[in-house]
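# step 3/5: fold
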Amino acid sequence: MRAFYTLALGSVLLTGAAQADVANGVYTIQSKFSGKLVEVANADSSNGANVSQWPSNGHNTQRWLITKRDDGYYSVLNINSAKALEVYNNSSSDGANVDQWQYWGGNTQKWNISDQGNGYFLLINKNSGKALDLLGWDDSNGANIGQWSVNQLDSQQWQLNLIQRSGSKPVDTSSTNGATNFWPLSGNLGTHDPTIAYENGSWWELQTGVGIYGKVSHDGLVWQPLPSIFPNPLSWWKNYVPNHANNDVWAPDIKHYNGKVWLYYAISTFGSRVSAIGLAVADSLAAGNWQDRGLVINTTAANNYNAIDPDLVIDKDGDPWLTFGSWNSGIKVVRLNPITMKPIGELSSIASRSGGIEAPTIIYRRGYYYLFVSVGKCCDGVNSTYQIRYGRATDVTGPYLDKNGTDMMNGGGSLFDGGNNQWVGPGGQDIANTDVIIRHAYDANDGGNPKMLISTLNWDSNGWPKY
């Protein structure tokens, strides 16, 4: 059985070496001795797959996401598998093998990166205090990589070649126990499944509809309409959703990340799991120079989850994830490749509920990830039963617990907004940073038409959200 224990060791102190300030991002790791790249052999995505070297071939199995963690050490995750570089079985022996395993944050999966001052680095395992090593000074293709006592020789020196940086960490803009503030909106307010973003003094909203359309406001209060992002359906949509019609695009999500603005959206038909999530990117919302990046993930009737309602999540270290899902087996989250912004690795299930669950939104604030979902039934005017519920977790993959400690995988979720006599069925929510929440609700005073509502998102002293 695989042992999950850790051995506490102090930081390794090396003459002429120092803890490196390595930017979070995607790298290749190149041996000084052989000139070849560290890779997971045969592009294997399974736990325990071996790590070796091979000449550069441009495959994701030779690319590694390096991320600095809270303790100052780095995780090194393979871009092909999304699994972590580790010393197998927590070994502290010279010659112990290095492999990959699902990241769980143990010391055997963390590395001190030590700058040698010559363009090369040592990667020293936190658990063993030993260095990543090209075993036996073997320069052949497929030569094995393991660990060895630190000697700073060429077999232990590695060049980190940056391909792309990760984005910035999320910013907490919220306050605690602020006054309830429902924004007095006017102008073009009809909406469904809205997403919101702020850019250079203006607020932008996009929503479900023909080609994805939306609104812009220079003060967040008075809203003017915008043209559709996709005036005509993209040709590839029908490859995945043959019955798609009328250029109807669902539940967009817009977020700024790593110098770009990313637009995720869903193509589907009502009540079906034949669905697809697509992606477009622009330099800015104001520029509107959207470029199609194609399919992100799709589902068929054979899947027990549904590829709709995407939401881009930035974790506490600045790495991107995608949460999505609807009804069926519920809400999922998956890591994204920071280069392509498309999924890598395995899906994690984070919320499930009988009677309907969808529209996930995840934000990070002060040590917790908060998952907001819409539960119940939408899209039926004043007969809609949508409510917004939430839970929180210390890890982006869960478990998400509500205020009573009930797991959202077991139907948990504390009530945030259940509507009122005028605003029925609130849901389809999105959150900007940690302090603005947008959603739709059906106006009982106007024939049940769905309209946009925006409020300041406040937090109580125990770290739970409130109006």
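# step 4/5: annotate
Residues 1-17 have pLDDT under 50 and may be disordered.
# step 5/5: archive (pending)
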